[in-house]
Amino acid sequence: MSFGFPDVLHDIQDAISDARKARIVTFAAARNDGGNEAIAFPANEDDVICISSTDYRGNKSGFNPSPVEGQRLSILGECVPGRGGAPKSGTSFATPIAASLGAVIMGYIDCHLSDKKYTQKVRTRRGMQGVLEYFSQERDGFKYIVPWRVLNHSTEQSRISHHILTALESV
Q1: What is the CA radius of gyration of the chain?
Q2: CATH number of the domain residue 36 falls in
Q3: Which domain holds residue 124?
Q4: HEC states along 142-153?
Q5: What is the domain count for the chain?
Q6: SS3 state of residue 54
Q7: Distance in angstroms (rounded) separating the CA atoms of residues 4 and 42
Q8: Which DSSP string corresponds to 100-152?
């Protein structure tokens, strides 16, 4: 969800609850008001993975809200190519990048890991957040998602599976 609100909207809260019950992991943009405001709804919900922004070097974006334990994931969100080639910035641009990575991880598990317990576990906020945190490094109070540090062109499939299983076992 590439949006945020200062207050809870019950229809969105109900949709998030329905998604959790259906084992659909939800991601939401943290907010773009810097440290002046807290993390926005729905990113501040327990069932949602909160995403903040970095520049292309992994430095936290100045418009991120202050990090809060359990809501510290960050990924590229500055100067993201936009419509017409104009670069865009914001946690709203970081969120679909993180969600796309989550979809790739789910697809990998579906295709390469036969144990259904892992396919179910990664389809929870706790499971997906655990994998994304495993692929992260601490940076400026955030957990900057850098999957290429673990998964790259030379990583063998057995090693990739090992890393994902290790991450899921820890949650």
Answers
A1: 16
A2: 3.40.50.200
A3: 10-169
A4: EEEECHHHCCCC
A5: 1
A6: strand
A7: 6
A8: HHHHHHHHHHHHH---HHHHHHTTSHHHHHHHHHHTEEEETTEEEE-GGGTS-
Q: What angle do CA 50, 130, 108 make, to 5 degrees?
A: 105
Three-state DSSP class for 4? coil
Residues in the chain: 171
Q: Which residue has the tokens 């576990």?
A: 121
Minimal CA–CA distance to 160: which of 116, 120, 118? 118
Tens digit of pLDDT at every position of the chain (171 positions): 999 999 999 999 999 999 999 999 999 999 999 999 999 999 999 999 999 999 999 999 999 999 999 999 999 999 998 788 899 999 999 999 999 999 999 999 999 888 888 999 999 999 999 999 999 999 999 999 998 877 776 778 888 888 888 899 888
Closest to 44 in 3D by CA, of 76, 75, 66, 59:
66
Nearest-CA neighbor of 54 among 28, 38, 35, 72?
Answer: 72
Residue 73, H or E segment: strand 73-76
At 139, list the tokens. 């940076």
Whether residue 77 lies inside any domain: the answer is yes
pTM of the model: 0.92
